[in-house]
Amino acid sequence: MSSQNWIRIVIALVAGAAVGLIYGWIIDPVEYTDAAPNILRQDYRTDYVLMVAEAYQSEQDPVIAAQRLAILGSEPPAKIAGNAIEYARAQAFPPDEMTLLQGLLTAMQTYQPAGGPNP
Amino acid sequence: MNSQRRNMILPILLALLAGLGLGLAYSWLISPTQYTDASPSILRADFKNQYRAVIAASYASTHDIERARARLALLGDPDPVQALSAQAQQMLAAGEAFDKVRLIAQLASDLQQGVISIPPTSTSPAVVVNTPTQTNQPLGETEIVEATPPPAGAIETPFTFLTPTPRPTQTPIPLPVEPFALVGQDTVCNPDLPAGLLQIMLMDARRRQAAGIEIIVTWNGGEDSLFSGFKPEVGDGYADFLMEPGITYSVRVVEGGTTVPNISIPNCTDSNGQLYPGGILLTFQQP
């Protein structure tokens, strides 16, 4: 087989691979159906944290609030609440919602999980 | 020359297919698209349950039913009310605390009935006085919402009642508990129903079905606790219990209700004159 033919085969291989990648990444990418909340888009994450803050306002239970925040990832609850406040500030959330988020952040900053380091 | 070209078509086609296969394998298996901006609709089932629970807890605090509805829509459930009800039943079956379950059942009930209600508490129900906190709100627009006659479990308000701006603060004002009284005790003879089915229907003072009310069924050597509203497909104030032959039960609605004694499986007669075990329907209502 001549070198010209080998070049044609390689070009065909590359073209096939390119089509496969485009199809697999863009046209019909893998669909996730059992995702974890840590990959939620930032606005959804922030709304989730806001829900936790709204519930915390009436429940006043930092343990439950921390447990609810924990599904968003392995970061400390205060960090999760802080990130939400940053996003909410950038998106100009209403002052009452900022107050709720700030209240949750304060609670999470002082929250010590059971079994944590003893003073 | 032509035959040489024809001979090359097959290897090129094979190379194209092999490349396609490699590309697909890489993009689907080895390095699939990484989701970093996912929506709640693709969450795993247990995370969706957690999400719903937080929506219900938030709703219990804000009473913003439209926002709760919008948040539930993010989960992509075909029927959010059914999803909430199913989750409440699963939680109850798993022995989770009723306080958690009640929030979810209450949200399901409110969404189905289209009213904003306050979950009944073990102490007393409450009305909500909404006082906008913004200073530019005219005093004349301060809203005091109180149901007439005073409800024990729910306060019906139009959806436009709570608008996002200004958001009201809530001050609970206790009301006296209205006990549920037995207003009907009927034998149900329906061979299509399970034998010995004890059906309980709870109505509030406005004759609307009352969800989230605890009912205690006791018998010699045993006791069980039921809650209304976990079968919204039957009714928000509905609960049921399967009686066993030869056992006499007592039924009591926890929210100030009196005990209904001597409940047992009645005998019914079918069209051929044969006896079969029937059921009982108890209807309770607040005065």
Structure commentary:
The complex is a heterodimer of chains A (119) and B (287). Chain A is mainly alpha-helical and 119 residues long. Chain A contains five helices and no strands. The longest helix of chain A is centred in the first third of the chain and has 25 residues, at 3-27. Chain A is elongated, with a radius of gyration of 24 Å. Chain A starts with a helix and ends in a 9-residue tail after the last helix. The model of chain A has no long low-confidence stretch (mean pLDDT 88). Chain B has 287 residues and is α+β, with helices and mostly antiparallel strands. Chain B has five helices and 13 strands. In chain B, a hairpin with a 5-residue loop joins strand 11 and strand 12. The N and C termini of chain B lie far apart (100 Å).
Sum this structure up briefly:
Chain A has helices spanning 3-27, 42-59, 62-70, 77-90, 95-110. Chain A is mainly α. Chain A is elongated, with a radius of gyration of 24 Å.
